[in-house]
Specification:
single chain, alpha+beta, Aminopeptidase, five-stranded mixed beta sheet, 30% helix, globular, binds coenzyme A
C-alpha cells in the first residue's frame, strides 16, 4: 500500500537493520541476539509469519507490524486458523497519519490469503492508545485475561 506520505512493504532481507531497530523500540527488554533469532525465524517460515514495514516518503523506516497464523486456541475466537497481530510500532513523530491502519490492512490481506476468517490481537490492559487503535479499526474487545505463574517445587529423586 502506498500513500503520498508513506508506503507499506513486506520486510525484505535488506531491511533487517531497520527492523531490528524498530523492534528494539517496541520490545527493549529483548537482547540483540533474541531479535536476530526471532527475525530469522519469521523470515524462514513465510506461511506462518509475516512482517511489514512502513517507509516515509524519504525512505526512512517509520513502523512495522508482525503477524502469525495461529492454529492453537486463540482467546475470543471460534475459527481456526486465526490471523494474529504479534506486534505493531510506529515511530513517535510519524504517528496519527494512518500508518498503523495501513499496516493492519497489509496484515489482513496476508491473513485472508492464508484462509483466516478471524483477525485477533491482544495488548496490555493499560495500553489505552493501542486499544483505541483497535476499536477505530473495527475490532471488538473479546476477553480480559489475568496471567499467573509459580515456580514448580523441585522433587528430590531418590
Ligand atoms: C498504537 C500505534 C501503533 C498507532 O500508530 P499510528 O500510525 O499513530 O495509528 P494510525 O494513525 O493508523 O491511527 C488510526 C486510528 O486509530 C486511533 N488511534 C491511533 N492512535 C491513537 C491514540 N494514541 N489515541 C487514540 N486513538 C488512537 C485513531 O482513531 C486513529 O485515527 P485518527 O488519527 O484519524 O483519529 C502507535 O501509537 C505506537 O506505535 N504505539 C507504541 C507501540 C505499541 O504500544 N504497540 C502495541 C504493542 S504490540
Amino acid at each position: 500500500m502506498t500513500s503520498a506520505l508513506f508506503s507499506i512493504q513486506p520486510i525484505a532481507a535488506e531491511d533487517i537493520v531497520f527492523w531490528r531497530r524498530l523492534r528494539h523500540s517496541l520490545w527493549p527488554q529483548a537482547s540483540i541476539d533474541e531479535h536476530e533469532r526471532e527475525i530469522a525465524e519469521i523470515l524462514s517460515m513465510p506461511d506462518r509469519y509475516a512482517a511489514f514495514m512502513a517507509f516515509s516518503e524519504t525512505k526512512m523506516a517509520v513502523g512495522f507490524a508482525e503477524a502469525s497464523i495461529r492454529h492453537d486456541y486463540v482467546n475470543g475466537c471460534d475459527t481456526s486458523p486465526v490471523l494474529f497481530l504479534e506486534g505493531i510500532y510506529v515511530a513517535p513523530d510519524a504517528r496519527r497519519q494512518g500508518i498503523a491502519k495501513a499496516l493492519f490492512k497489509s496484515v489482513e490481506q496476508w491473513g485472508t490469503s492464508h484462509a483466516c476468517d478471524e483477525f485477533a490481537s491482544d495488548t496490555d490492559v493499560h495500553n489505552i492508545d493501542v486499544q483505541a487503535l483497535h476499536r477505530a479499526l473495527g475490532f471488538e474487545e473479546t476477553e480480559r485475561v489475568v496471567f499467573f505463574r509459580k515456580r514448580t517445587a523441585k522433587v528430590e529423586s531418590t
